[in-house]
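Handout, page 2. Input:
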Amino acid sequence: MSVNFDNFNSIISLFHHKSESLGNKPYLWKKINEEFVSLSWEEVRRSVDFIAKGLLDLGILKGDRVVILSENRPEWQIADLAIMSIGAISVPVYTTSTTNDYSHIINHSGARCMIISSHELCIKALPALEKSNQCKNVIKINEDDNKYKEPINIISWNSLLKNNTNGDFNFEEETKSTKRSDTACIIYTSGTGGNPKGVMLSHGAMLTNCSGAQELLKNLLHGMDEIRFLSWLPLSHSYEHTLQFFTLGIGAQVYYAEGIDKLVVNMGEVSPHFMTAVPRFYDSLHTRISQGLKKQGKLSQTMFSTTLKLGKKKYFGEKMSFIENITNNLMDKIVRKKVNKRFGGSLKALISGGAALNFEVGLYLTALGLPLLQGYGQTETAPVASANPPEKVKLDTVGPVFKGTKVKIADDGEILVSGENVMNGYWNDPEATAATLIDGWIHTGDIGEFDDEGYLKITDRKKDIIVNAGGDNISPSRIEAKLDIEPEIAQSMLYGDFKNYLVAVIVPNKEQAVIWAKENNKDEDLNKLIKDDEYIKKIKDVVDKINQNLSVIEQVRKFILIDHEFTIENSMMTPSMKVRRFKVKEKYKDDLEKLY
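Output:
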């Protein structure tokens, strides 16, 4: 099943090689009428060629950008490969983003076409397309009779598969002319400046990441005739996006989960060997298992407790007695086997990335026999820079550096990454590129160190980006600007690194607060007002109004009110009038943590 990723000049040449060698074998699976149904490698190749020819008919040329807006499904990968087949550039976007987000990405990337999966997503995206001068064509995947008021040319995906006219295009020639350094996709990621930045990733960047992943998992992959992956993280996330090319390269079968609510059910149906997830999934897994345990009988609880205790001892390398060794082996057969069976019974590795894994959660799941490997990276590094090898996991680290990648620690402790996996730059943003990519090294904004075995450990964050529990990058300044512009709010600061949702410190506008107090016969003392339920409700209404124009992950769910502003005098503002986040967090961290 293994392949040398370094031998290919592009993702497409790799795909052609695999589709020719695996032909009629099953490749991509999705649920249809309550049953998983597969497309073979040959069928996927045929669909890729037809959609690629359809794009050519629409006038899409080499280097043009095409946006993909869809949930995970076989058509997502087919669209991605079809775009790359003609030398065009994929621009994935999240299904959870807002119309304004789509508008920015479409216009900033200069996209000329958009592939949209459903009527529901068309409703959100078409108003954004209406404002675009260049992007007037939509290929719609789902068949339905819905009509739209926007003056957009909508082409049916199925019609492209059935009625193909552009038979002269030579895909083999186009593939041969592609270089590893050519940009394959632009993935938009939030920056401190507000609007998302378009990270240009080359074919070589993603291929070298795949090569590193294969090296990491080589002992687990050895001798496997069939490999099953379950895909559920959004393919618009660079983590899952690159992973699809790794699974392609090793000839794995990919099953697309029906969604987070059906994930555990799908795992039982598919029996995946590998799965990637973000810490939020492992947190909820930990909660679900520990809550479920409370309903079990005393014997089950005792066995579970023994399994955890001995599993932790084994992880820390503590010496076990003869009886403990026998008991631990017994727990493998009784408890750990049962836990693994809940996830299909075939798991070889659960890979965690996108944000920091809670050590206690990682230890808990590892003690239960779930093979958890934590890694680290950024969209700008395609994305993985390091990961824990299955042979020796250190849960408080993000593992040794990936093959083909270089990592060094700057004098100020910042983690710098170099190698073929590094981005080509930010699309149309030379200033941001120059600030992040210096002399071939990505300045990650993370602070870290190496331990004595060469395992990388993240110790702090240098930049303001919030990375939530789902691994999404969120720009706090953009959301704070929306809050601060409201008359009732003077200042705000968001909080939510590695959390499931955002919360905020809000400083009310004193003048507006006094006006409200007078109108509502309340005490005008701000210190008393911020504890008044009706006034809190007033601010909540303002926050809810802002939330309506934010994507789900950007919404502020809870907040604390304080009665004094951030100033230079109280060290919460810099002389250039920027909020000193670490000072605000220092003072209000306990109160903010109580909101979770």
